[in-house]
DDB1- and CUL4-associated factor 10
Amino acid sequence: PCRSVLTVACEQTEVLLFDPISSKHIKTLSEAHEDCVNNIRFLDNRLFATCSDDTTIALWDLRKLNTKVCTLHGHTSWVKNIEYDTNTRLLVTSGFDGNVIIWDTNRCTEDGCPHKKFFHTRFLMRMRLTPDCSKMLISTSSGYLLILHDLDLNKSLDVGSYPILRARRTTSSSDITSGSSGPRAVGSPCHQSDAGPLSEKHLSRSSQREGGSPRNSLEVLTPEVPGERDRGNCITSLQLHPKGWATLLRCSSNTDDQEWTCVYEFQEGAPVRPVSPRCSLRLTHCIEEANVGRGYIKELCFSPDGRMISSPHGFGIRLLGFDAHCSELVDCLPKEASPLKEIRSLYSHNDVVLTTKFSPTHCQIASGCLSGRVSLYQPKF
């Protein structure tokens, strides 16, 4: 949020800080964690959080980087995602233990923050909040996309305590269980759960508000992916449009021989009954990726205005648009799924690019590759 610092999460316990304008290295947090650092999220102009394969989350203050503000313990496996609700100041994390955990930063001390387990699902890969925090989206390595509607982060969810809104192309919800399980490897076959599928009998009447949709109602989707109708797929990366209009997925086939970037428009409107079929997402745009660096997750992103997508592509990145003029998504919604348009390709790495990010304020894009190189671009159009 301060727009003046580029933070880089590294594989070997480090966090790097740069001035994105001058490219000057500011500081290295050499032992930020005891294992790989996976994600960084700023909470305000000075506080930021990091998460790691060491199962912890750390809070940092830009004004005092010699020591952590505190370390948060609660996950039992690699922590992969950090989200933040600025209105409630609740920190939301997810990991390969299948848990989504809520941390109350309003009551943070040097010993940590009060926390609670909010949700659990098997094979969890990524978790995101929409910009208005009205929905939580969770992707899984077994090809499911879970959407919690009318989100209430103050209410813990146990299996059976939320209404299920079944959707088209959802053949089973058997990977949502109350038991813990490690993640399935990217590209490996989908394992079936020993637990039976959730059913409508689990609908909690107390969670439904009078005259409205129930809070934290769960929708289970298997998003349509081109070429994957007869095969499973793994949703490896999940991002949201900055205006909340759409979700952006990077999907790979279970055989790991195809990789796609897909955009899905949110279709609003509650079902007639709490358990009636619905499908909140519609595939609008897609493009096949190079599938270089099989087995590695590639993190893509929207531009701050939502008109472009930056996507790792081999040893560089591709800038993609909904049309050749970089129009708004709402101005070029097709009746059927259309190809994303390649606006520009940028290559400067000597290894597979795994992540990319737009500057929130400048015409600047950062990318990072497997060998640890970080590149900054200032493309001209």
User: Anything to note?
Assistant: The CA atoms of residues 79 and 273 lie 36 Å apart. Residues 166-211, 270-277 have pLDDT under 50 and may be disordered. The chain has no helices and 28 strands.
